[in-house]
Amino acid sequence: MDTVNLPFRCLAVQGVSRGGVASHVHEVGQLIYLRRGAMLCQSETMRWLMAAGQVGWIPAGMAHSAEPLAELAGVTAYADSAAYPDLPAEARVVPAGGMMGMLLERQLSYEAEPWRGRRQRLAGVIVDELLQLAPLPQQLPLPAERRLRALCRRVLADLGRGWLLDELAAAHGFSRASLTRAFARETGVSFGNWLGQARLLEAVRLLSGGAAVGETALQVGYQSLSAFGAAFRRHLGMAPGEFQRAQARA
Q: Where is the HTH araC/xylS-type domain (predicted)?
């Protein structure tokens, strides 16, 4: 859906698109609320993951691909920035708990009604709620520089490995110091912080698909369950098992 006739439109999300959706662009911004399932999205500069009980925002004009990781159910909404100029300029994931998921479900139930009235009013409330919610740490910046891009692809393909900065620097034509500077300049974070975030995003993906907590910890490079649990809780506010149970209830 590239355009909408109204400033805010909702559609039901149901099922799964086999093989995902190749890179595409919307002329308006898109909200995706997942009641069930999980989805991995990627743009030129970022990778992010949405799980059940969360809402993803993709701004207008951002080329992105989408890969459903499980059967999906929820609501997608399209919002025109001409009508809502304060919409975020960057992609983000926010919690749907509390009001956001309920508001989008209610807005979907109003779709057959005239625009002016409670449908228009509720759309404004949804946009305000999106702006108020703090983004979850589920985005991973991707560098544009060719060598750094290749380095990141290599690391993402084997997150269970104990990657060493000196080894990566030598393999991709950097000194340790120049890699450290270039990586921070391109992504805004240190390589160590980026690697930790990449591991946690992959852990969320695996847990959303039903993988065991211990197996997940090993696959993303943690030799200790306690270290994995502490990192997961620090970034997502709950233990891996709690997250998985919440996904099952969603």
A: 149-246
Distance CA 172, CA 185 (A): 17
CATH code, 195 = 1.10.10.60
CB of 111 closer than 8 Å to CB of 10: yes
pLDDT in tens, 136-170: 888 899 999 999 999 999 999 999 999 999 999 99
Domain containing 39: what range? 8-132
Buried residues in 171-195 as b, exposed as e (16+ CB within 10 A):
ebebeeeebbebbeebbeeebeebb
Residue recorded with tokens 């090993």: 218
pTM > 0.70: yes or no: yes
9-51 residue pLDDT tens: 999 998 766 668 899 999 999 999 999 888 889 999 999 988 8
Q: Provide the 10 A C-beta neighbour count for residue 29.
A: 24
Chain centre distance of CA 219: 20
Are residues 12 and 102 located together in one domain of the fold? yes
